[in-house]
Amino acid sequence: MLLKPRQREQILPLPVVLISTLSADGVRNIAPWSNVTPILRPLEDVILASWIKRDTLYNIRQTREFVINIPPARMAEAVMSCSKNFAPEVDEFEQADLKPRHSSMVKAPGVEGCLAWAECKLLEEITREKYALIIGRVVHLEGNDDFFNEAGEMDYERAEPLSAMLGEKGIRFTRPVYAGRYADYKEMFISKSNNSPD
Questions:
Q1: CB 63: neighbour CB atoms within 10 A?
Q2: In which domain, by residue range, is 129 found?
Q3: pTM across the whole model
């Protein structure tokens, strides 16, 4: 089946996060985001893409900080509440009936009830005509003790982090499941002994 290039987001599952920010005047904002990803492993940087006219982008430009909150599947309705185009002066924590969580390294609050919180500082903005790429550095990272082991690995089958498949007219919220195969990172590298002729 041939798809249109603009349908590129419909061919892969996307993460669903909540980006929380503060305006320069202290108004709290939350917005759902799927165009966000860590930049390579094991660096500390993340990147998110934003339309130019977004309160989240404006707040990040003003305060140079934001929090990436990882919601569980049970928060899908709250995520949709945060997706509405409220006026910039509206406190979206109140509108979505979400509780703020104190942050350690930034002024913007996190969102209580999430699985993890990445407090970020703005490093760089790359701007195009219709969108901007925000590169941030994680300055404080914390996970809910109920769903992470001592190595910092999420028990995703219990935690049920929210993800999504986008369609032509709407969104289907999903969550990851184990595919039955574990791979050690070292499997990706060919050792010299294995590559040498007999």
A1: 18
A2: 8-188
A3: 0.94
